[in-house]
Specification:
Helix content is 30%, strand content 25%. By secondary structure, it is an alpha+beta fold.
Length: 246
């Protein structure tokens, strides 16, 4: 196992598209990324925002369910962490319990990175010892920011500061955090895709589901700027429900 992980880490550091993905399988691209999970206690919104040097990060990292919580799974991502983490949160487990349960049952946890946020209590994070440097996280009262293969710790520090000091909607504050992370150096391999997921019960199209925003930039030279453009267009096209708060 140790020799295999060392080989995968070497490949990931040399080749932008090499590494291990869900299940640690060679040939799957490492999801080198910076992301955040967050909630707005005033409105009940939950969200995930992410940028990565991998194609279509929106189908890998962000998972959220209204009234339950949010999950970000990355590095050599185990996508089973998303639905299973939400299921465990829905059963009443804390974020810390969910992180411990998911990683404890994963033989490849050394190369995983994970953030979990419930509707109450503090978020919990995990960065495996085999994640490619710089890798780490920062936890706040209503959010967690994390990343791997970053320019340095300043990326997550900048994201946290921008979110804490930001104003406006949850989506706007998360976008500001992504922008601050990129300004601090971001993913040291560059940019490719980004995504923004915001949920709240009854905020989806026609009030029939919880998916208020599910915006994805699959492949773009400036994915965060493009995500901002899509966000602004979404706000004009699909206004927030007036009875739901700010």
């Amino acid at each position: 196992m140790r020799k295999r992980n060392l080989l995968l880490l070497l490949l990931g550091s040399l080749l932008p598209g090499a590494g291990a993905g869900d299940g640690g399988k060679p040939g799957m691209p490492v999801v080198a990324t910076f992301s955040m999970v967050a909630r707005d206690p005033a409105t009940g919104e939950l969200g995930v925002a992410v940028q990565s040097r991998v194609l279509g990060v929106g189908s890998i990292v962000p998972w959220a369910r209204a009234g339950v919580g949010a999950v970000a799974t990355q590095s050599y991502a185990n996508t089973a962490y998303g639905p299973e983490g939400l299921r465990k949160l829905g059963e009443g487990k804390s974020a810390e319990e969910v992180v411990a349960g998911l990683t404890g049952a994963d033989s490849e946890k050394a190369v995983r990175q994970l953030a979990v946020l419930g509707v109450g209590g503090k978020p919990a994070v995990f960065t495996g010892s085999g994640c490619l440097a710089w890798a780490g996280a920062k936890v706040g009262e209503h959010y967690a920011v994390q990343g791997n293969i970053l320019a340095g710790e300043a990326v997550v520090e900048g994201m946290a500061k921008a979110f804490e000091e930001g104003s406006g909607t949850l989506a706007e504050r998360m976008l500001a955090a992504l922008e601050a992370g990129q300004k601090a150096g971001g993913d040291r391999r560059g940019m490719q895709s980004a995504a923004l997921l915001v949920v709240r019960e009854g905020w989806g199209y026609g009030g029939q589901n919880d998916r208020y925003m599910d915006l994805r930039v699959e492949d773009h030279a400036a994915p965060i700027a493009e995500l901002r453009r899509l966000h602004d267009l979404h706000r004009k096209t699909f206004p927030r429900p007036k009875a739901a708060g700010k």
